[in-house]
Amino acid sequence: MFNYKDFGLEKGNLYEILAITFSRANKEDIIEPNAACMGIKVNEKNIIQITPFHNTTTYRNLKENGYLVINFVNDIYLYALAALKPPEYSSEFLLNHLIYLSLKKRGRNKFRSFPVLKSSWGILIGETTKEIENIKKDNYGESSSSTFEIKIFYSEKNKESFKLFNRAENLALEAIILATKLKVAKNSNNNELYEKLIKQIQSYMETIRRIGKNQNALKAIELVGKYIDKN
Predict the structure, then answer these.
(1) Does the pTM exceed 0.90?
(2) CA-CA distance, 63 to 194, in Å (whole number)?
(3) Which run of H or E residues covers position 158?
(4) Residue 92 phi/psi, 5° resolution?
(5) 25-57 burial by CB neighbour count: b if 16+ within 10 A, else e?
(6) Rounded distance, CA 17 to CA 14, Å?
(7) Of 98, 111, 117, 209, which one has the greatest count of Cβ atoms within 10 A?
């Protein structure tokens, strides 16, 4: 039986994970996986929650079949790949980093296997049981999202980790998250916010280069730089 404490989780805290959802490619049992950098929480009822925006593939896939694979990962570079989806995302990320875990048929669409990250130190697989729609207004404008409650039916801890990112990795994660907001600021013609995000990202990147020999963090901000140039 799944116990969130076994994975070092505490109620109310937001944890960054790599979420894998998927859709059917055709009528056969072939799936198209999608990985995304997402946050999860454990609510007061000891249930995992995830809140994707309505314009994301994660949301569409959860609405289609309700399945979610939560991957606890140490490598910040994988977060950058999943969040920013550079050209090498499809071949490098999906082909080199995913394996398929065979389970007994589960739930509404009866999938036989689930895509997981082979480098994950912990894996949770679950199914949506409840959806609450949200409308949010902030500096980026108005956005709609849904908070899903996830019933976990499979959990696996490959090793003891609960790793805390070092300073370079923490800054790289912040830069990645801010980079994903650039397109929203640009599309809303909020030039002031766009420039503010750029300056903050560049500050993080400069600090990472100055303080670190952390190759994964350096590779992650290299992707961030390419993402900024492209957009």
Answers:
(1) no
(2) 31
(3) none
(4) -70, -50
(5) eeeeeebebbbbbbebbbeeeebbbbbbeeeeb
(6) 10
(7) 117
